[in-house]
Amino acid sequence: MASELIRRSLFQRILTAAEANPDATAVRDGEATLSYRDLIARAGVLGSTLNTLGVEPQQPVGLCLPRSIDLVVAVLAIFRSGGALLPLAPDWPTQRLHDVLTDARAKIVIMPEQRTRDLGETNFKGVVPGNTMVVDSVPATPGSGRQLAYVIYTSGSTGRPKGVEISHSNLSNLVDWHLAAFGLRPGDRVSCLSGLTFDALIWELVPALVAGATICLAPEDVRTAPEALQEWLVREAVGVSFVPTPLAERMIDTDWPADTTLRALLTGGDVLHVWPRAGLPFKVVNNYGPSECAVVATSGLIEPGGEGLPPIGRAIANSGLYLRDVAGNPVGDGETGEIWVAGDNVGLGYRGDPQLTSERFVQQGPERFYRTGDLGRFRGDGMLEFRGRRDDQLKIRGYRIEPDEISAAIARHPDVHQSVVVGQGVGAARLLVAYVVPRDDAVLRASELRDLLAGRLPGYMLPDLFISLPSIPLTPNGKPDREALPQPSPLLTMPDHPYKPPATPVETRIAAMVREVLAIDRVGVDDNFFLLGGHSLLGTQLVLRLRDAYGTNLSLRDLFEARTVANLARKIEQQVTAMVSAMDNDQVAHRLAT
User: Domain check: are 406 and 447 in the same one?
Assistant: First the structure.
């Protein structure tokens, strides 16, 4: 099924777009811009440097940069060098960076100088953006076909992350489908706001560059706040935007200017729980796809006014969907089965793990399938409904999480006898909860366990709650009975920090609001809102009060990230200071104390 376009390398296709409109803007980052001519030139210098440093075809090259023009240049430079992209997050703990680079067998990593120093004496050579050299060596041929395009790491059930290998053919199929489905063309503006290790970031960048469109990089304080993001999309005149599900749910249920340039809002990464409101000036498209299937496996237009959960669409171009029972046999019409994906988007497998690859990537006759572990059911109109998981894997705010990886990290604490990690709640309010059995009546603090995990796991894998239990309930066959675990409550929640009173006017005012919302007598600045009995409905009340009090664009997501009075105070002070930057210091102090 490979077309002539798929046989050409992605770098060559982007180069063709650049040659057609060299002065067109390739990337916008606030007021800073980069033309296609300069993008190709800078990627050429960095790509040549990578080859000089020893990057060979299909060799993973770590990319650990914040969202920036340098990030886009580096992605293209890696493709130009013939290497494979290995996305890393700048805020990952050093140990996780080391583990992923080692597992991927990467030798070169593009990252800021400080992070290079953090890695210490290792086998990895750091390349700082801008510190490149023009050399005369002939670059490796840009990758194409079944050659490795990128390796994306996801949470692993064995206690360590696993690397998913995606080929250039896989990625090219995604690009071709995207350009045809959403009519991307030169001059269009598309947003870039996904997490830096979320494979949707690659989906945002590569099709746009192949089309000769302009990538608009969302500021960090905008990309997680629905109201601010809406204003930014309108102001930047974005035509196509991917928005992770929890944010999209808020944005498709609000009013939009009738003359907005946005024509397609794409969402995915989690279960969509709401239908679009009537009268939106753009179409809403729900997408589904495990990382093993090159970002997107299904896609579907969601019309307003439906009932139940919105569907996840139909198979994208050059791919197929099948529902199978536990024995791998097709299920009957209208029945629920495991989703198997086949076609040009099915990836190469797991890096360095042939056994897991053979278990999940199944060859049956001439067809090769990926067994997703997700359950689905076809509707009468041919659209697919998502019906949950076969196993214990979780999706929390768009991230795929294997609870056993977190439990394995918790087990490193000498006073932990056993633990089980589960998800509680739905949508943006979904929490990650760790149930822990202490060893020999030891007294554990949530802060101890959180600090332990923060040294090994990314932030999105840190539990929101730690519950102390004398034992884990078991099923008759001896496995943890997740259905029998008690619901979180203040009485069961593991103690966190000693009481610390508010020390500033902002902390004092926020603590008073938290006391009122939760109807409790005392709140310390380090107390976790959710450990005190807070949940999404009470959190919404608190966020609305804080917005009214300080005139900020604080969101429920901000509360989930901040959790404590101290963190909320810092976030509000930053937002208020930014809003009133033109005021003098006395005016700012008065605004915060009002």
Answer: yes
Alpha helices in 280-432 (DSSP H): 354-360, 403-410
Tally of CB atoms within 10 A around 436? 26
β-sheet with 465-468: strand ranges across? 416-424, 431-438, 465-468
Both 480 and 517 in one domain: the answer is no
pLDDT of residue 558: 84
Looking at per-residue confidence, does 164 or 537 come out higher? 164
Q: Among 4-8, 285-289, 375-379, 579-583, whose mean pLDDT is lowest?
A: 4-8
Structure confidence at residue 393 (pLDDT): 84
The total of other beta-carbon atoms located within 10 Å of residue 366's CB is: 5
Spatial separation of the C-alpha atoms in residues 127 and 214, rounded to whole Å: 26
Write down the pLDDT at residue 284. 98
Secondary structure in 3-state letters for 332-356: CCCCCEEEEEEECCCCCEECCCHHH
Q: How many CB atoms lie within 10 A of CB 123?
A: 11
- Locate 104 and state its tokens: 């991927």
What b/e string do you get for 506-539 counting C-beta neighbours within 10 Å, with b at 16 or more? bbebbbebbeebbeeeebbbbbbbbbbbbebebb
Predicted pLDDT of residue 144? 84
| pLDDT tens-digit series, residues 300-346 | 999 998 888 999 999 999 999 999 999 999 999 999 999 999 999 99
Q: Is the domain of 477 the same as that of 522? A: no
Please tell me whether residues 399 and 479 are part of one structural domain: yes
Domain boundary among 438, 454, 484: 484
Q: What is the DSSP string of 166-205?
A: EEHHHHHHHHHHHHHHHT--TT-EEEE-S-TTSTHHHHHH
Taking each helix axis as running N to C, give the angle between helix 403-410 and helix 446-454, from 0 to 180 degrees, rounded to the nearest 10. 110
Number of domains in the chain: 2
In a domain, 89, yes or no: no
For the chain, the residue count is 594
| Residue ranges making up the domain that contains 418 | 394-484
Per the domain annotation, does 522 fall within a domain? yes
Closest CA to 558 of 248, 219, 224: 224
Whether residues 536 and 582 share a domain: the answer is yes
Long-range contacts, 328-336 (Cβ 8 Å, 24+): 328/362, 328/364, 333/378, 334/377, 334/378, 335/377, 336/375, 336/376, 336/377, 336/387
Alpha carbons 304 and 306: distance in angstroms, whole number: 6
What is the rounded distance in angstroms from the CA atom of residue 531 to the CA atom of residue 51? Answer: 51
Same domain, 456 and 528: no
pLDDT digits (tens, 9 = 90+) for 94-127: 999 999 999 999 999 999 888 888 887 777 888 8
Structure tokens at 194: 């996904």
Choose the most confident range, by mean pLDDT, from 82-86, 223-227, 393-397, 583-587: 82-86
Is 541 in the same domain as 480? no
**Which CATH number is 463's domain given?**
3.30.300.30
- The arithmetic mean of pLDDT across residues 162-179, rounded, is 97
Give every CB contact of residue 22 below 8 A, 6+ residues apart in sequence: 35, 36, 37
* Pairwise CA distance, residues 60 & 164, whole Å: 12
Query: What's the mean per-residue pLDDT of the chain?
Result: 89
What pLDDT shows up at residue 276?
94
Q: Are residues 516 and 475 in the same domain?
A: no
**Predicted local distance difference test score (pLDDT) of residue 124:** 85
Residue 594 has pLDDT above 70, yes or no: no
Which two structure tokens, joined as six digits, stand for 22?
Answer: 């060299």
- For residue 157, the model assigns a pLDDT of 67
